[in-house]
């Protein structure tokens, strides 16, 4: 099989001129995440961190910027060995947060990047608004570490499509957040709007998008501090309205559209009809598939065109791990 064509990388370094190669990584022990705060106190504390951080910035005590990888999972992380290969050697440039069903008690091996990274969690059900509550819980925990600059939401079926250096440079240097936002007419779009949300949210402002977001610290603080939109969505976005598809896209579209790309950096196969995306099993994982996801798209990055549009992809089933590990070094460029 011939080698895949070279990728067209974004122009790096970009503002704020931070590259993984310019930083001397440190390797602190992961901070313990167990705390006794309820959601209200957690969100309040997270919203106040920026004031402390501003003072430390004045004193130049803030360490190198990190990316917060936030995993919203049901229980186990079957693809953790692949992620461990992805993170290896980049300690001090990332933080990991895992929100799992509180009834799931299995821990991760001490040598894993996921060891000790579970946050105090609550039960989450598909299609319920508590999915949004879990996302905010992850953001709030990640914001408590004032060195986290970018925040990416992932699932247990997500995989990285590039090595850590590429992902780090892409996100740290991005001038905008990556939250998919679009206006969709019909039953699964505007049809989910509840007129009781007016006048705060009107029908023409209603938006839809992928749950799997990536955002800046500035926007993350706004999201966990929001009470006005969050309250009205929690009250009226029920039944056929799925909060994780509508709250954040609508909120960001109304208030922060200039700071958003309106696209996600996590690829999902929606070519099949139905409420759930396509799944990838072991035979589906091929170099051709991986190369397609890495470079067969065109988008805008910091005002310029690039063929690196997706940094992650889902839904990869547990049985794909061996093949992904096999191809990671040659085609994903890590491991």
Automatic annotation (TrEMBL):
<dbReference type="GO" id="GO:0016020">
    <property type="term" value="C:membrane"/>
</dbReference>
<dbReference type="Pfam" id="PF02485">
    <property type="entry name" value="Branch"/>
</dbReference>
<keyword id="KW-0808">Transferase</keyword>
<dbReference type="GO" id="GO:0016757">
    <property type="term" value="F:glycosyltransferase activity"/>
</dbReference>
<protein>
    <recommendedName>
        <fullName>Core-2/I-branching beta-1,6-N-acetylglucosaminyltransferase family protein</fullName>
    </recommendedName>
</protein>
<dbReference type="InterPro" id="IPR044174">
    <property type="entry name" value="BC10-like"/>
</dbReference>
<dbReference type="InterPro" id="IPR003406">
    <property type="entry name" value="Glyco_trans_14"/>
</dbReference>
<keyword id="KW-0325">Glycoprotein</keyword>
<keyword id="KW-0472">Membrane</keyword>
<keyword id="KW-0328">Glycosyltransferase</keyword>
């Amino acid at each position: 099989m011939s080698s895949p064509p070279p990728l067209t990388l974004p122009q790096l370094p970009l503002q704020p001129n931070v590259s993984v190669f310019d930083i001397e990584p440190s390797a602190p022990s992961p901070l313990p995440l167990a705390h006794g705060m309820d959601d209200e106190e957690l969100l309040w504390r997270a919203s106040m961190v920026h004031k402390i951080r501003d003072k430390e910035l004045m004193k130049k005590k803030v360490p190198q910027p990190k990316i917060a990888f936030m995993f919203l999972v049901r229980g186990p992380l079957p693809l953790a060995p692949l992620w461990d290969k992805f993170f290896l050697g980049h300690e001090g440039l990332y933080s990991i947060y895992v929100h799992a069903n509180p009834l799931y008690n299995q821990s991760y091996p001490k040598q894993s990047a996921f060891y000790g990274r579970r946050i105090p969690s609550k039960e989450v059900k598909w299609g319920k608004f508590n999915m949004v509550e879990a996302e905010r819980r992850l953001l709030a925990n990640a914001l408590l570490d004032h060195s986290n600059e970018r925040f990416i939401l992932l699932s247990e079926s997500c995989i990285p499509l590039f090595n850590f250096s590429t992902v780090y440079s892409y996100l740290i240097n991005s001038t905008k957040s990556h939250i998919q936002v679009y206006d969709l007419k019909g039953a699964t779009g505007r049809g989910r709007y509840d007129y009781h949300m007016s006048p705060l949210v009107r029908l023409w402002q209603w938006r839809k998008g992928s749950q799997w977001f990536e955002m800046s610290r500035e926007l993350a603080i706004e999201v966990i501090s929001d009470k006005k939109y969050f309250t009205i969505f929690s009250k009226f976005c029920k039944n056929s309205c799925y909060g994780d598809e509508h709250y954040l896209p609508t909120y960001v579209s109304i208030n922060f559209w200039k700071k958003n790309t309106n696209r996600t950096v996590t690829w999902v196969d929606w070519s099949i009809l139905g409420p759930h995306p396509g799944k990838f099993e072991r035979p589906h994982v091929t170099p051709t598939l991986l190369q397609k996801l890495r470079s067969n798209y065109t988008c805008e990055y910091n005002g310029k065109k690039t063929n690196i549009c997706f940094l992650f992809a889902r839904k990869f089933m547990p049985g794909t791990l061996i093949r992904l590990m096999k191809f990671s070094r040659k085609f994903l460029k890590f491991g």
